[in-house]
Amino acid sequence: MRTRPCASGKRRAGPHDRQSRPALHRIRLHAPGAGGSLAISLTAPPIGVFLVLRRMSLMGDAMGHAILPGAAIGYLLAGLSLFAMSLGGFAAGLAVALAAGLVARSTVIREDASLAGFYLLSLALGVMLVSVRGSSVDLLHVLFGTVLALDDGALLLIASIATVSMMTLAVIYRPLVMECFDPQFLRSVSPLSSPTHLIFLVLVVLNLVAGFQALGTLMAVGIMLLPAVAARFWAEDVGGMIGVAIASAFASSVVGLLVSYYVNVPTGPAVILACGAFYLLSMLVGVRGGVLWGLMPRRHLEA
Amino acid sequence: MKATAPTLGFHNLTLGYGRHPAVHHITGEVARGELLAIVGPNGAGKSTLLKGIVGELKPLSGRLDLDGLTKRDIAYLPQVIEIDRSFPISVFDCVAMGLWRQIGALRGLDARGRDHVIGALGTVGLIELADRPVGTLSGGQFQRVLFARLLLQDAKLILLDEPFRAVDTKTVADLIRLIERWHREGRTVLAALHDMEQVRTHFPRTLLLAREVVAWGETRAVLTPANLAKSREITEAFDAHAPVCEREETRWSA
């Protein structure tokens, strides 16, 4: 079956889409899909900014793998049900993130090492589950998520996650900034250090799960981190970075969606490549440490 | 000085890592409003003692009395700071963290709070740098920022762990003036230090440590050549096969 592109956005994902398994490149733009990516562009980049500032950029990637067994269990139990896969993915991601966080805080192991331990375990479990019960095609579907055309229910779930995530981030913003900048100080004045960290980990997982529906597991990490890394070249404070990250993610989503619609390429990679293009551009011309500025022969100032 | 109530009481307190004590069997009291220097060679247990007071380390044995002081009443400047200096935050915002007790996680910084921050920056002589990112400051300037933050914490008990590392003499003089101001305001200040001249000049009382209390009292009486020699003799070794300590407690009255 070949799904037709539909600019009016009236087309719904019907039962056909779920039963058939179109090739990756046949997924096309439609309204819930576009809405989903745009919602993700609002909520994932701020999380990415904090991951970058905490030097945990690669954690997003690790978590993307960690949600695999959960999504796989959901898939094996309920078939291609977005809800079951999301719930499973969320549970698995949360288990890994919390276990890693708690182990890092109560033993000699640092957070990155304990996370690596748990996510590799989780990934292996996921691959094992899928290969025992399903086929390698299933594994690809779970990893790339792209067989899933978003329906209205999924869009609602993504929008809810985006809303909850942004509100939570607003509430924990100050302790989170302090936890990134000077965790020892936060610990010395308040008992909020560990709760803040754990809530933040939950937000990371929630946003990955939301992104996994819209863009696929692996691509979800891209929209979280690429705009955040690029933002460091433009802004000098956390608020500014978040603003730049959201704006560039949003613009990249629009560009990616349009390109995937007109040129007939899959949406997820198109959006992430647009984010990546902005990242490369920022690296060259960004006003805070862009490479080209350094090459320009300019005389130093008086003070 | 005997008349004032103690704010800190150590009762046969032993602190350490694993089962190995870094400093053991401390018994004594620190009076409210006291300005106390903690001196001793590297590995004497100065930092460990401060970590114990602030609650980062649980006692291996013995007891610590804080006389009702809570986390909020204690300001602590650690020796090894975990601060990420490349973090994009301004000097102003960094110092404003000291107002946590007033504004917590959610309340905004009102005009009065802003004035407090500016005032603290003025005290440490950094008003012009308020909007600069902390990453652009020199080591000494950053130490002043940390002192401004301590100032805003308005704490009853202030713990400073080697606060003058890598700081020039002008800055040290300014920061010592600030410590003396805290002393006049009746706050209790404990500072781990290395410069004996500094201690003799500015700190009325001293605790000489060498993994146990060597001497504790008036600075002049504590920093004698005999005591200092004794503190150097006591081994710094961390013996992996140390036997169980059976020592009786010795009492040092402050």
TrEMBL record, chain B:
Q: Which SUPFAM superfamilies match?
A: P-loop containing nucleoside triphosphate hydrolases (SSF52540)
Looking up InterPro entries in the UniProt record yields: AAA+_ATPase, ABC_transporter-like_ATP-bd, ABC_transporter-like_CS, AztA-like, Metal_Ion_Import_ABC, P-loop_NTPase
Which residue spans traverse the membrane? none
Cross-referenced PROSITE patterns: ABC_TRANSPORTER_1, ABC_TRANSPORTER_2
Q: Which biological process, per GO, is one annotated for this protein?
A: zinc ion transport
In the UniProt record, the signal sequence range is: none
Domain of life (superkingdom): Bacteria
A single Gene Ontology molecular function, please?
ATP hydrolysis activity
ABC transporter domain: residues covered: 8-236
UniProt keywords (A-Z) are: ATP-binding, Ion transport, Nucleotide-binding, Transport, Zinc, Zinc transport
Give the protein family: Belongs to the ABC transporter superfamily.
* UniProt protein name: ABC transporter
Lineage of the native species?
Bacteria, Pseudomonadati, Pseudomonadota, Alphaproteobacteria, Hyphomicrobiales
